[in-house]
Amino acid sequence: xxxxxxxxxxxxxxxxxxxxxxxxxxxxxxxxxxxxxxxxxxxxxxx
Length: 47
Description:
It comes from Streptomyces humicola. Residues 2-44 form the EccD-like transmembrane domain. There is one protein chain. It contains three helices and no strands. The mean pLDDT is 87. It starts with 9 loop residues before the first helix and ends with a helix. The chain is 74% helix and 0% strand. The longest helix has 16 residues, at 10-25. By secondary structure, it is mostly helical. The protein has helices at residues 10-25, 27-35, 37-46.
């Protein structure tokens, strides 16, 4: 990760990478829930 005019230490760089991944991946399950994908999957598997 590069920040303009700043040097980031490796632990902080890794922490920022993990936070960025979380921010990018968290909306996926929320969108699937809003679209009803989970309810459809439950209906298919419950018989």
